[in-house]
């Protein structure tokens, strides 16, 4: 079942089956790339990241971290940052691109995935001089489940752990050698990420997220409707950092897998906090097709450039 859902999500994204080959060819052609860096130090495939620098220009370069979409089922899909074309656009815009793996839900339940992302941010910030990176600006972007993790990263800037109704979730974690390093990000671009698990089926999804083996149920370790507190703690809209970064959110109004309401709720929640957020609703856009395309990539790059200049 998991393999089938993962295949459906990948096909919806249009990533194709030769992503790794395409990515490796690009890496070979680039003279400034580091591949498969173990950002935790435990040799887990889910704890690897790649760094690419722009082919032109003088560093240090501002940073954008990319988090792939896989329904949280994959621990090794960082190559899709480039097979989708997103990574190339960021490089051309003058950004260093850090594409990261994270543990799959079959490796570990939530909050392992957000702890991985936080550990990757800390590693990049702590080791920035070694890779010609400028830690003054670290943006983050991701699509689908990667959008969820990107939004959660931004909404938990400076939040170590949260207790709700007697249950505590450790967001920051203690992975890697750089636990004293700041994990905050400076800007977020979220591509149609889930934000409120419990309402996905009732607000427009043609895919049943309530089922026991759905991506969200697999992430938290049980059927989502039977575990509302675990869902709450995994939802980006549950968190309100005191230091919110600006958000840019893209979502197709015909998305059959992650309904538009998910981004609308996130956008509304950020605005209620009087934090900067822009929601771009793509008419006719689906789960990837029609949304992750050049005009919106250009808007993403311009958004990151604007906020990088401010830093």
Automatic annotation (TrEMBL):
Keywords: Hydrolase, Signal. Residues 1-19 form the signal peptide. One of its GO terms (molecular function) is hydrolase activity. Residues 49-269 form the BD-FAE-like domain. It holds the Pfam family BD-FAE. SUPFAM superfamilies: alpha/beta-Hydrolases. This is Alpha/beta hydrolase. It comes from Flavilitoribacter nigricans (strain ATCC 23147 / DSM 23189 / NBRC 102662 / NCIMB 1420 / SS-2) (Lewinella nigricans).
């Amino acid at each position: 079942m998991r393999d089938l859902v993962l295949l459906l999500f990948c096909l919806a994204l249009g990533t194709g089956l030769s992503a790794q080959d395409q990515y490796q060819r690009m890496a070979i052609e680039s003279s400034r790339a580091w591949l498969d860096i173990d950002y935790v130090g435990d040799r887990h495939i889910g704890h690897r990241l790649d760094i690419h620098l722009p082919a032109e220009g003088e560093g240090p370069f501002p940073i954008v971290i990319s988090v792939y979409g896989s329904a949280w089922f994959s621990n090794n899909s960082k190559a899709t940052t480039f097979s989708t074309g997103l990574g190339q656009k960021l490089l051309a815009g003058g950004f260093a691109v850090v594409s990261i793996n994270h543990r799959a839900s079959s490796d570990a339940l939530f909050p392992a995935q957000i702890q991985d992302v936080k550990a990757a941010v800390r590693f990049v910030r702590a080791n920035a001089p070694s890779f010609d990176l400028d830690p003054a600006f670290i943006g983050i972007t991701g699509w689908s489940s990667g959008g969820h993790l990107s939004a959660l990263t931004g909404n938990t800037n400076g939040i170590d752990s949260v207790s709700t109704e007697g249950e505590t979730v450790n967001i920051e974690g203690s992975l890697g050698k750089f636990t004293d390093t700041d994990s905050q990000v400076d800007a977020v671009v979220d591509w149609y990420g889930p934000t409120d698990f419990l309402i996905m089926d009732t607000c427009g999804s043609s895919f049943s997220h309530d089922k026991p083996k759905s991506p969200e149920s697999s992430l938290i370790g049980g059927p989502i409707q039977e575990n509302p507190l675990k869902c709450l703690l995994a939802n980006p809209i549950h968190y309100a950092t005191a230091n919110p970064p600006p958000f840019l959110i893209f979502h197709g109004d015909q998305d059959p897998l992650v309904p538009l309401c998910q981004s609308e709720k996130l956008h509304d929640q950020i605005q209620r906090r009087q934090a900067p957020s822009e929601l771009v609703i793509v008419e006719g856009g689906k789960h990837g097709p029609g949304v992750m395309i050049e005009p919106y990539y250009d808007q993403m790059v311009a958004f990151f450039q604007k906020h990088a200049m401010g830093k």
